[in-house]
Amino acid sequence: MPLHPEVAAVTDRIIERSKDRRAAYLALMTQQRENGVGRPRLGCANLAHAFAGTDEQRDRMKEGRSMNIGIVTAYNDMLSAHAPYYRYPEQMKVWALEAGATAQVAGGVPAMCDGVTQGYAGMELSLFSRDSIAMATAIALSHNVFEGAALLGICDKIVPGLLMGALRFGHLPMVLIPGGPMRTGIANSDKARVRELYAEGKASREELLDSEIAAYHGKGTCTFYGTANSNQMMVEAMGLHMPGASFVNPGTKLRQELTRAAVQRLPEIGWNGNDYRPIGEIVDERAIVNAAVVLLATGGSTNHLIHLPAIARCAGILIDWQDFDRLSRVVPLLARVYPNGSADVNGFEDAGGPTFVIRELIRGGILHADTTTVAGDSLADYTRKPDLDGDQLVWRDHPETSGDDTILRTIDAPFSEEGGFRILSGNLGRACIKVSAVARDRWTIEAPCRVFSDQQQVHDAFKAGELDRDVVVVVRFQGPRANGMPELHKLTPPLGVLQNKGYRVALVTDGRMSGASGKVPAAIHLSPEAIGGGPIGKLRDGDVIRLCAEEGILSALVDPVEWAAREQAAPPPAEAGVGRELFALMRLTASEAEAGGSAMLAAAEL
Questions:
Q1: 113 among annotated binding-site residues
Q2: In the chain, N or C terminus with fewer CB closer than 10 Å?
Q3: What does the entry list as the binding residues for [4Fe-4S] cluster (predicted)?
């Protein structure tokens, strides 16, 4: 199928907008490539330091003729998704030796869990943890003793941060290695129901805790389709996993063999062979468009409207929300996975998973199929599902039909002809909204607003019954420069309760919502943010706001003369504690959300 003309036009727009930056990036990567393998150029004392911690690999590393793989790991056992990585490095070293290579843990990166910090002060470090991960990845790879890298990471800021750092070493071949999702716990609908009962005071803390433990119960990623699992879908479409690796459960033979295959693929695509595939060339404009397309086609996380622009900029590529909006009008919605449906990612995988989605989008001319990947010269390699034939890893063709058409559909019979993303603009600025899980009769909300400066104020007003009416809840001073742009996911249960009561409810914020954004319409990432003069700072309680996803409108219905004359609200004082004060410089220099919400990129002018 020929490429859809609008997908081609958006890609051309990105290529034209990026041409100078991308040329400069590729020139820098060529320069790093031409400097050659680092180890032969290092002094003997430098090399001795690099080899001192290893035993069985030392002789091979000393020769300097085979690839040395740098492992960058986000392991910790406080994150269920990253706990399986505990044994990976020692296994990977054995598998590297089998392929005539060596491997070393180049470094660890911080990996915080948004699920633990959600709604608390630690969440204000979350977005900037991504920049910290990027810088830690650069530190890990800076020793100049690696000819390739394996990146171990899955969750929200971790994959974007790993990619941002890795792309500054774009002359090296790299592969991302996931660990897979935990097995299914209680139904997502049951989990949501108990949360809403607790918000109403109809369930005890003990009942809520038991429900949450039944949902989050083992090693592996959380099973809802939030940012972590959207990461996996995106990385598959960029060609940076072994095909079909995303949603194979931890602790299985298939999971182990996919990891072995990833490690042993790296020497095959190294710069000493004739199949050199550096990550900086794999992640081109087409790969970035492919990532955006699959996120839209699966109702993926709104966080990637910040993360994907930041990743792209690290490869010299400029993508903006207008590109997402244009793509969303032509990308069909093929998947319904919680919170955009009732199934979890295990059900999604059983129905066909990422490989089915990629096959259908290629069949419909919605994806660039001719991209280079770590596996081959076409994204078609990612349309076949991994399996075991005895102990041998193989890839098999999909059935032509979905395993469950309530979860996953073909290109000919999508859930919707459009993806789930829209841009909103008006006198409040520019925001984005995920509508794939929002009922169509809720796409337009016009109601008086109630203005808050933090989540706790919203919860207090909800408990006092002050929001029992049609209302647009405004939460400002939540952008990158204000407090690090924490997710406001804890607002979902009370707003859901209000909507269930029949009220017309919406959220407007310069902060983030969540990869689990759901049924309540939410205009998020509003730019410019309140800090620095964004119009959201002019709002007062009682102002009527019109949010219309159909028409792309977000405006305060205030007399223009009065609106122009209004002063900005004073921001709340900056808070210290939980390490927040250490990130003051990042807050000061952070870019707007549409440019990636990054302090690092703004400072480096990438």
A1: no
A2: N
A3: 155, 222
